[in-house]
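Below is how a single chain appears once it has passed through the pipeline. First comes the sequence as given, then the structure the pipeline wrote out for it. We keep one example in the README because the format questions we get most often are answered faster by looking than by reading.
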Amino acid sequence: MENSLHIVEPLPAVRPKGAHRFEVFSPKLARRLTFFRRALVDEWIVLEADPTVICFCERPGYVTLDGHRHLADFWVEFFDHQELVILIEDCDEPENDRPGRRVDEAGLTIRRVAPADLAATRMWIDNWQRMLPYVVANRGLVPASLLSEIERFVRYRLGDGFAIRHEGSAPFVDCDDVDLPPQRRGQAGQADQGRLRRELIPERIVG
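Resulting structure:
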């Protein structure tokens, strides 16, 4: 991947005066993360729940935007590209005088997340906020071989008409080309018509 970088660890967290402290555990990173703003927790949930996100890191370093120095909120790695994420509210106060690692943003996309973007995915974020504790608590019960088989199956179907499409940030599955039982074909049709708003997965993984 051209113009790629790898962030090993985040910059130390500096707690603003009077700010709340949020401690979370990331299944993707297998470690704890610390945030001091609720909006950052929401964006973390979006990244954690996005199946196209391979890896990410909070507070990767400083970037220059509009001639000023700002702390990037996340570095994110996808299958085919990388990007830096900055919550728009953070851009209001430049941090020109603070020491810290600088990120070479050349060739990287800088995505600015507005409060309206998080508000548009509020239901998705709330749902995943309730599910993530169960994912964390049971992560050791799922063998790696099963996860590999699921990933292999999804990759195969992605190239065979089993396309994941997105409405906002929530993934949906196009089941038109999947051989489903009659009752599941009915559900798939309802999903395409907007009556079912959940992800549909075939009942049996075929090896």
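The first strand starts at residue 22 and ends at 26.

See the next section for the split statistics.
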